[in-house]
Structure formats: structure tokens, C-alpha cells
Design a protein that fits this description.
homodimer, alpha/beta, 2 domains, nine-stranded mixed sheet, four-stranded parallel sheet, 16 helices
């Protein structure tokens, strides 16, 4: 039924349009081969045929435990275009976590390759996600037309939180939310049909920060990269003329330090942790323009952007870096971003008063799958509570100070672990730093730092403590500084502080 | 009432966000003065207070008969943010047309300055739109908070068609439609906060092709220009560092030919008529990047874009010009564009078969105000029928051949007036051309051409007919070529062929 002046919002429409107007342009490249938008859409409709033949109906869940291969892109459109619900799963998870996710979402079908099939629960039929078997599946399938659902609030996907804090929760996205969020990404990233997007970010993570939809919306090119291997990434950057990529700082650090690193202007989006001044300087030297994003799985990925203002171009590098470390402002398609106290009053815009970041609007989840209690708990007062503590600067830009649970309370003083980490990474020898609170009889808690060194660099704990003492308040100087070769991480590269706490405790 | 993961779509949100995150940036400049986004929002809320004090309630109409002054920008947000309905009226209309529009829309209030007040019907209270009186009005008003309506299908505005064909009809826009259309403009125009948008297009025309909303959405700068005077435009281009502007080809021709014209990279959007190769060449020489748009008042303005592909960059100028003369493809936020035959079947994509352009979706009007009959007539089969005849090229790009009523049928052959016009303007002496059909006893109709000459150029009718004969089929050569100094035009610069027909008939 068509109403005058109305059509349901769905990211499926992006592929329908690009098939229509960019039919002969390259849509996806992978392992030296490429497909056009006409071919991409054809493959999607064949995969939709496979789903239909296997009995997948509207509302059924279809999971994927897959790397950044074309099959995972195709599944997003095939499932969405059939009214099925995508469950993109982190391929680094183990059998226990997968068991919980499958028990919760009850997928009718799962796409997975070796070695990820090994650890799958035996509760769903398994199809290949890539390779000869997958190609055969498509070749023998009959096409089923994809379409946007009539109800734009139809469930599009369930995205399990990556588990920095405990049991995964299933974050629900709607077609409307993903569509609007993607338009925001197109606008903020200035994406156009000439863009070449390199898949250094996992596709399973919030639909690859919506780039699964946004790149398709503008008829640009998806350059697949199964895993963020720096050598493969640099080879593709050179051969495909990559113009855009995303990644957590740890992924960018991997790229920056590689022997194939070379100058090239690239629009780089980073999030998950604030980029450090040292890292930004190295990015600039390569010609990258780095934009800092912030969001959560519950907000369709990045919903906040450190939107650059042309008047800042002429500031000295250190000032620009400290501006870029701020999380920033709500994107165009988001509701206003607030930092509130416990009475839900906005904190003053003074860059000092600490409050919780709360969000609402079209690109905030409608709730957790089959978990009304968690949904109610997260949405007090109608706002989604992020659990992130931040200050609001006078210019309206937000800067995170800590996860509520990562703040250290020492002798009644709040200590921001982020502040100490930023100070440590300003030291030329330090690659990354993670600070946690450890129990202290006298002070309640005291900071303890873990650091990794840059290749070939040396430092000792005392010198690092002195370095921090010279720069920030004495009570913030970590009692201990421990050296590591790497950190425990989530699939997206975030440092898992709860593991460090367990180790330290 | 707030639903989780949902917020009503409304362009009012763009100003609320820019007030929040771009408070101290310049929003609007006019006559050497400027206001920031904080000040702009404050003025809007004062104007909303004025409306409220004057008894304007949700659903009431508020008209404006005004040039491109800040007051007209402000009225859009004040009315929309109060739930009132904007009726932006072409200030070039006479008392008869204004009488029809006021009788149809029954505005509670109208903003107008001299000399436009002279011709207003006496049915509504008149307030100033600019100047000292307007400033006084704002200064003495109390602020009324603006907000997005809860129902995104709320009527936002009534836009009277500019009357190339007869009695004005009131085209209704919704908050949802304008919001989505604006996001499309942001994406397609690559608008960012550094943009300086010059108001060479009338604001009253389809909300200035949605730039009233889009420029605000990204926190860019509105550079007001009351009327498209070429000298004033060039002075502002230089002093304000203008980066974007829109205008019908006739407006661009006015700029191109001015003595102050100088090199400067500007993103230029044109529509209403296809840009000619000769004009495009002159634009390129100035450093302009011209994008051709197409749409109607019924489609929120331009809904179709001749989206440029990077692979076309290296084509010769003449080929690029002929590509740019095509109307193009539906924008990202539009439903698929169709060219259909009388049975609503898509015409073949061969660049030859003629069909009617039909559209539907979020950025198509919900109908004509108080005119169900006209609405039904325009929306046969659920699609809006544009009345424009076009071909579909193999690459999915649409190219208009004619308005259904502008096609000339001569001896059973269809003759495209656009084709003859494009041929004539390729002649170095010709500035603009308009071709109409005149009754002919033998052939039914025959083409008759009206032309204006470029400054200082000379040509005679016979030589021009020969010029056409060498390039297109003999039966398309106009029987008559008449010289004029200017054309009768609509407010947006479209040539009013019905006036030419009356004169010729």
C-alpha cells in the first residue's frame, strides 16, 4: 500500500537505488576480484533465495560468524530485504559466549566458515560465508526480490554488546534507525560515489559503524579486508586507491607502525578510545585526516562526532590534538546530546563538572532483545544512560572522562583514568597505556598503570611516574607502572580493563 | 511523549542542534551585519513569540511576501517550530494571483515590506519582514520556545506553484518530507560547516530548494542577497568567500556576463532548465563546478540530480557538457525514478523511447491544499505524474525532452523544443532561446524560435536557421526565428512559454 508522500525508511532502499543508478560501477572488491552494483544486487537476491529455500521467514533471525568477506555484506541486504533479522556475531568469541548469544537469539540459520564453525552451538543449520562452497550456493539459488519492509520500525538486527562488562545483551536496531543513522554518516563523512572504503573495521560491529549501508547508499566501493592485517591493508590502500577507513586507535597504531606505511590522503574515523596527541601527529604526517567518533552499540555505533571547524585549522598541533581528543557533538540526525547529573539536570558547560552522557532519538536502540528488565534499567527517564562520564565544554562539545565504573575514587577525589592514560601516551616511549583502580587500605583506591612500549623504545617505571608528576596533580600519579607486550582486548580493539583488574587483583 | 529509539523528523531539529553545537558561529549575514547561531535561534524564538501574541495557533497559515532577507529565514523556523504552516509567496506576483493564494490559504498573518504591501489583499494582518520595524518587533517580543511537532506528518508549508501553466495550486509539504529531503541535499551537495551559501535563489521557492534547512543543518553560513542582482552577488562572493550557490540558468547567465565576474571555485546547482554546453564552458572557466538538478514544486524542489561520476572527469568538454545536460538520477532519499508509458510500464533504457517522468516517496507532496480533485488527477496509480516527457539512458540517467504540453507535433512527428533550444544556444551569438509550437494549416504545428543575443553579438534569422539545419533534422528547423531583448519569466527565471504563445498566437 502506497501512501502519497510517504515511503518506509529502510537501508534496503540504498541498494535498490544503487543497483538502478550505478549498475555498472564496482560495488565490492575482494581478493583481487570485483562485482558491480548490478552483480552485487543479483548476488544479494540469490542469497535471499537461499534464505527463503531454507525456510527463513520474516522475523526469523539469521546469524553470521564471519570475517569481512562479501558474503557478510550480502547477508545484511538479503536478510533485511526479506524481513529477516540479522545477528552479526563477533568471530573472536568462544563457545560459551556463542552459546549465550544463540540461546538468546535462536537463529534459524548461521553463515560461518572454518575455523569458526568449530565453536558454534549445534542449534542452527550452518551455511558457508565465503569461498567455493558459498559461490556454489549462490550459483544454484533462484533469485528472490528484496524490498524495504512496509513498517519502518521492523526489527533489522540484533547486535550483541562486545562484553567489556559481562553477559552480552542483544541490542535491537530498526530499519528506520539504520536508514537515518546512515544518512548522518554520509553527511558527516562527506561520502560520495568516488570513495573507496577499506574494511579495517569489523563488519559485525554495529553494521561496521553503518558503513555497510552508507558506502552502498552513495554508490561507492567496498574494499573487503577479512581481518585488519596491516600489510594487507597497506597493499590495498595502494592498489585500490583507498580514500576512507575506520578503526579503533589500536588498529590505526598497527597501520602507522608498518613498514609499508606511506603518505596518502585518507579520511580516517576512529573511536572506541580517544586518539592520543602522539598518534594524531603520526597520522597527520602520513596525510590522514582523523575524525574522532563516539557511540555505543546501543546508539547504532558512533552517534557523536568531534566535528572539525575550519577556524581550528590554524591552531598549533598540540591544541588541535587536544580538540580532536574530545568526543564532540551529536550528529545531524541525532537528538541533542546531554551530560546530566543525578537529577537529570544538565551539568554546566564549564569543561569541569562531571555528569553522565545520556542520549535518545532515532539512532538509539529500541531496547534489548527479550530483556525488558535491562531495557528499563538503561532507559530511566526516557533517556538511554550510557554509563559514560563526561564534561561539557563551553562550545557544546562533550569530552569523556571515564566509564562510570572506570573512574577511580581515591581519598574522596575522583581520578580520571583517561587523563592519566593521555599523559602517559604523551611520553615518546609509550605506545599504549591502560589505568585501573586497585584497592588501597588508606585511600580506598589508587591508580595502577599498564603500558606497552613503542618498538625499540625503553623506559623505566620511576621515570614514567616522574613524567606524569610533572604534568598532572600528584595524587593522580599511578602507584605502580607495569610493562606489557600487549593488552587483553575486545574484538574491536578496546582494552578489557576488567581482565586487567582480575590480573591485578 | 517519547518512544524509545524514535523521534519525529522535522527540520526544526536542525536549528535546535546548530544552536547547541555551533552557538558562536556565524549563521546569517545580511547587509554587512551578521548573527551567530545562538542569536539566530533567539530571533526565531522572538518571532515565534510575535506569532503567538498575534493569536497564531498550530495549523494556522502564516504567509510571507518577501525578498531573501533574514526575516524570511526566521519565519520558516518560527512558524515550523510553532506548528504553524508557512505560505512562502513569490514577491513578483500581482494582486490577482495574490488574491487567489490568500483566498485559498487564508493566512492569519503575513510578513511583507514595501512595495509588496501595496498589492496584498486586505484579509490578513501585515507585519514587516525586514528593516527597523521588524527589528523593533523582535526586540519587544517575548521568546516562545520552538520545537519539532510530535507528528512528523504535520503540515509544514503550502507552496503555490509558480504558474507556468495557469491557476496556482497549493503544494503541501510535511515536516518529515522536508527533513529527509534536506538530508539528501546535505549529502549530494557535500555541505559542511565551512560552507558559505549565497542566496541567489529565491527563498520562497520550495524553501530555497531546501537550502533554508540544509545550510542550517550543517551549521554553515547563510549569505543573504535580497534579489539576484549580479553586482551585489559578485561583491558578496568576494567579501564572504562564497562556496555554494543555486540558480536557474538565466540567473547564472546574469552572473557570468557581469564585469565583476572573477575566478573562484564554487559549487553551483542549477535547475529549471538544462544548462547549455556554452554556459557550462563559461562556468568551468570561472572555476565553478556545476551540478544540474531537476524537480518540481510537488517534489520539494530538486529530487533528481545529474550525479557526477569520477570516471567522466577525463571526457572531452563537449561530452561532459552533454552528460551534465541530463537531469540524472533520483537522490539518495528519493524513491526510484521512473519513465513510463501510458500503461505505467517502464520505457526501455535506450535513450530514445519517450515516456512520462513519475515519482513517489517521502519527498513528493502529500497533495494539493483543499483540492482533492487536482490531487487525484496528479496521483494516478499512486505515482505523481510530472507531465514531463523524458528518455531513460542505458546508465539509468533520465533526460527530459519536454513538458508534455511543450512538445510540438508536426506532421505526426514529435519535435522536442528543448533539442532545438540547445542547438540554438550552441551558436556563439545566442544567449538564450525559447521555442514554441504555432498552429500550421498543413503540418498541424510548426516550431517558432525566440532568441536573445549575447552582449555585442549579431546574427540574422536565416543564418540561425542554417545553423540549426546543419545540426539536426530538417523538419525541426524553426519556421521563424524572432529576436527579443528579454523573455517573460516566472519568479525563478523560467521562461513563460504560455506568454510567448499568446504573443505569437
Amino acid at each position: 500500500m502506497t501512501e502519497r508522500g510517504w515511503a518506509s525508511l529502510s537501508p534496503v532502499r540504498f541498494l535498490l537505488r544503487s543497483r538502478d543508478v550505478f549498475a555498472d560501477r564496482v560495488a565490492v572488491t575482494h581478493a583481487g576480484a570485483s562485482v558491480t552494483y548490478a552483480e552485487f544486487a543479483d548476488r544479494v537476491e540469490r542469497l535471499a533465495g537461499v534464505l527463503s529455500e531454507r525456510g527463513v521467514r520474516a522475523g526469523d533471525r539469521v546469524a553470521a560468524v564471519a570475517e569481512n568477506v562479501p558474503g557478510l555484506l550480502e547477508l545484511h541486504y538479503a536478510a533485511a530485504g526479506s524481513g529477516a533479522v540479522i545477528v552479526p556475531v563477533n568471530f573472536r568469541l568462544g563457545p560459551t559466549e556463542l552459546g549465550l548469544i544463540f540461546a538468546d537469539s535462536e537463529p534459524a540459520l548461521v553463515l560461518a566458515d572454518e575455523p569458526y564453525r568449530e565453536v558454534l552451538p549445534g542449534t542452527a543449520e550452518v551455511l558457508p560465508a565465503s569461498g567455493g562452497e558459498y559461490e556454489q550456493l549462490l550459483a544454484s539459488a533462484s533469485r528472490r526480490a528484496i524490498a524495504a519492509p512496509e513498517d519502518e520500525m521492523t526489527l533489522l538486527s540484533i547486535n550483541y554488546t562486545s562484553g567489556t562488562t559481562g553477559k552480552p545483551k542483544g541490542v535491537m536496531y530498526t530499519h528506520r534507525g539504520a536508514y537515518l543513522h546512515s544518512l548522518g554518516v554520509v553527511g558527516e563523512a562527506r561520502l560520495g560515489n568516488e570513495a573507496r572504503y577499506l574494511w579495517t573495521l569489523p563488519m559485525f560491529h554495529c553494521h561496521g559503524w553503518a558503513f555497510i549501508w552508507a558506502v552502498t547508499a552513495v554508490g561507492a566501493r567496498h574494499v573487503c579486508l577479512p581481518r585488519p592485517d596491516p600489510r594487507a591493508a597497506w597493499e590495498l590502500i595502494a592498489s585500490e586507491g583507498v580514500s576512507h577507513l575506520c578503526g579503533a586507535p589500536t588498529v590505526l597504531i598497527g597501520l602507522l607502525g608498518h613498514e609499508l606505511a606511506h603518505q596518502r590522503p585518507i579520511e580516517v574515523f576512529t573511536g572506541g578510545a580517544a586518539p592520543t596527541p602522539a598518534m594524531l601527529e603520526r597520522c597527520e604526517a602520513l596525510g590522514w585526516n582523523v575524525t574522532h567518533l563516539y557511540g555505543l552499540t546501543e546508539t547504532y555505533g558512533p552517534q557523536v562526532i568531534c566535528e572539525w571547524r575550519s577556524e581550528w585549522d590554524k591552531l598549533p598541533a598540540s591544541r588541535r590534538a587536544s580538540i580532536k581528543a574530545r568526543q564532540g557533538v551529536a550528529t545531524m540526525v541525532s537528538e541533542l546530546l546531554r551530560v546530566v547529573d543525578e537529577e537529570m539536570a544538565d551539568v554546566p558547560r564549564d569543561g569541569e563538572a562531571l555528569g553522565e552522557v545520556v542520549m535518545r532519538g532515532n539512532n538509539v536502540t529500541v531496547g534489548y532483545y527479550r530483556d525488558d528488565e535491562a531495557t528499563r534499567a538503561a532507559f530511566t527517564d526516557g533517556w538511554f544512560h550510557t554509563g559514560d562520564l563526561a564534561v561539557m565544554h563551553p562550545d557544546g562539545y562533550v569530552e569523556l572522562r571515564d566509564r562510570a565504573k572506570d573512574i577511580i575514587v581515591s581519598g574522596g577525589e575522583n581520578i580520571s583514568t583517561i587523563e592519566i592514560e593521555a599523559t602517559l601516551t604523551a611520553h615518546p616511549a609509550i605506545e599504549e597505556a591502560a589505568v585501573i583502580g586497585i584497592a588501597d587500605e588508606r585511600w580506598g583506591e589508587r591508580p595502577c598503570a599498564f603500558v606497552t612500549l613503542r618498538p625499540g623504545a625503553e623506559a623505566d617505571a620511576e621515570a614514567l611516574r616522574d613524567f606524569v608528576r610533572e604534568r598532572i596533580a600528584g595524587f593522580k600519579v599511578p602507584d605502580r607502572v607495569e610493562f606489557r607486550t600487549d593488552f587483553p582486548r575486545t574484538a574491536t580493539g578496546k582494552i578489557q580493563k576488567f581482565v586487567l583488574r582480575d590480573e591485578a587483583g
